[in-house]
Amino acid sequence: MSKAAIVSMHVIRRLPSYYRCLKELQKNSVNKISSSELSEKIGVSESQIRQDLYNYGNFGKQGYGYDVIKLYNALKRILGLDKTYNTIIIGAGNLGQAIANYTDFEEIGFNLKGIFDINPRLFKIKIRDAKIMDINILEDFLATNKIDIAILCIPRDNAQVIADRLTKCGIKAIWNFSPIDLKVPDDVILENVQLSDSLFTLSYRLNEDDLFKRIKKEK
Amino acid sequence: MSKAAIVSMHVIRRLPSYYRCLKELQKNSVNKISSSELSEKIGVSESQIRQDLYNYGNFGKQGYGYDVIKLYNALKRILGLDKTYNTIIIGAGNLGQAIANYTDFEEIGFNLKGIFDINPRLFKIKIRDAKIMDINILEDFLATNKIDIAILCIPRDNAQVIADRLTKCGIKAIWNFSPIDLKVPDDVILENVQLSDSLFTLSYRLNEDDLFKRIKKEK
Question: Cβ contacts (< 8 Å) between B57 and chain A: which residues?
Fold first, then answer.
């Protein structure tokens, strides 16, 4: 069992979209926004937004709405985006390299400190500032470097073994791209990237019209 | 504006996790499950599950729970996973190649028919059964091949131009990995992959204990 969250995961999973919306508003120099406008922009009901934010304090005033900069800064702090994080990537295949090259993460405070692989041919390559290193020195590296997040970009078969090695070395957060249910200790945070969920949303929507025609006929 | 969904997107976004859970249950030869057990497994309240599913018909019986195989098959059909889809990937960089190599999508009916790039050095390469082709022949290719979903794996700068070319050729669904808000016609379905949302969930959870200590102190 991975670490349990204090607030419901459903609330937590809505926060990034709030943050993205407020960031956009702030970029466009909007100073305040009514709760109905915010609700429309985010696609979540006014009362749900109010309820979600209430977990973290009092935001928004009756009859005024939300102060954009204040709420943006609050969400940034709530999401832990006022800090920086040291990350490593395990697996320097296409996916690992794609993530390593994604400079946006660096810009928002996720600093890549190293990449690990089993393939000796990759060991001399550097992606931006991060070296690709032998997975055999993972334990040594983690003993001397403070790493907050390990990003798992390896095939399913090795994922559990590597996750065990990481958590044994004290890694407390794993961002997992391997399509497998990892088992991690109770104090470790595991975030699985479910790419297929997003793809299924697309296939759902490609069929939604037909689906409701069929449902209507069956009634 | 991309195409509007009939059912709330929040409901739609919960369906893939229902599906994954039922698939697992079915694989483990579980025949029926109570609504409270299902609720616990999925992490969504019993009434929410009931309400969500009610959009698509009557599932589950009072005092019995859910018939696993029946619900699994229904969800498969609802998500459009009883059909197959032809896909193309735009962008044969690391991310494009990673997605192309991800055989799991093929297994569930998403068949990759081609990959497009601007780099002539890649044009002779084949990833599994799909050729990498010159982006200049995109329109010709789409005129003679029925493609359901275009997967956008290109840098932000070119994404809108390519999206315009795709929709002009009649592409009705775009799975977008570029970190940009694309504009598409009203009848096109756009699904943005927000990798950073998942990363922000992780940074949130790394800070949640400290956050609530601070909130408690401020009260």
Answer: 215, 218
